[in-house]
Amino acid sequence: MTKSMVDYLRVVTPYLDSELFSLKSLGEIQKIAKYLPHSSLAGFECRLGESQTKVDFQISVNPHSFKITKEFMESSTWKKILNFFQDLQMSFLLKEQIKRIGLEFDLPNDQPWVLPIPCIFFHLNPLSIDETQALIILILKSLDYEYSSSLQHNLQTCYNSLPNGANIKYVGLMLSRSNQALRIIINGLVNEQLIQYLEKIGWSASTEPLYKLVSQLTLFSDMIALALDVGKTIQPKIGLECFINKSPSEDPRWNLLLDYLVEQRLCTLAKHQAILAWPGICMKSDHPDLWPSNLLWGDRFVNSQGVSVFWRKISHIKLSYHSSLPLEAKAYLAFGHSWLTVITP
Predict the structure, then answer these.
(1) What is the pLDDT of residues 276-302, one digit of tens each?
(2) For residue 199, what are the contacts with CB-CB under 8 A and spacing of at least 6?
(3) Is residue 1 scored above 50 in pLDDT?
(4) Where are the alpha helices (DSSP H) in 13-128?
(5) All residues at 6 or more sequence positions from 40 whose CB lies less than 8 Å from its CB, including other chains
């Protein structure tokens, strides 16, 4: 009997349309999930262009209980990650100021299979600029990540240029990639503030062609988060992450946003339909033969007080922008398990 994230994948992957992934990609995700613990929050990163069927996998982890099998401990990077998780338990600053930790797995290319090195993302609690800076330095030191003077200078510029109401919500260490830049994701840049911010931090590309795109995306979004890669320079490729608070059944802007992407040839019509079909919930009665055994005790405990469900939602749509490269669109499809309270009249 398996006790891994594969158990949860079995419940939700029947709802993942084959337009969004190849069987090979799904097989690679299942291989990775075999070595990961159960998580109540995970998701898929789906590319929306024509003939793009590669899907990456993300999982939120509890650093206090996270373990991998000994066969992968030969990897120096995995050792650093596990050592960091141990440091996390000893550091008040780390424990109190990191809300959640996510691992993002880029699927391996055609090579002998090993558990891939993940990118690691930190969801930060609301912090002051000084606290954010101190926390990032502590994270980098704990993971033995290079913190050059140029990176320090560029991060300081990004902090100092934030307008009121904006904040660095996520910090990502792209451990699996040769480019050792730091990913920062900024929330709270409203409309033209996003363009003004890029100009203020000295982003190398022209903001003029970006203005029209941001203006259009603002029509379809409750919020656009800005993803930047910061290293020796502030890199020219950025991410525009479009969030809509309500589900597609409650807010027509999901459909309008995907229509726009189809018109711009950034998404196929089939993938448009597949994304909108993803949200929903399922219960044990829907898949009794697939229901994970680790949930049975909790299901019995809540009994008539609650209901055990797997939920599926669209997290956001991301556009990757580079002034000299074609636009690329991705959908982030989240899923997880919850016990929902039953309210009786």
Answers:
(1) 999 999 998 898 999 998 888 877 777
(2) 207
(3) no
(4) 23-33, 76-90, 92-97
(5) 60, 336, 337, 338
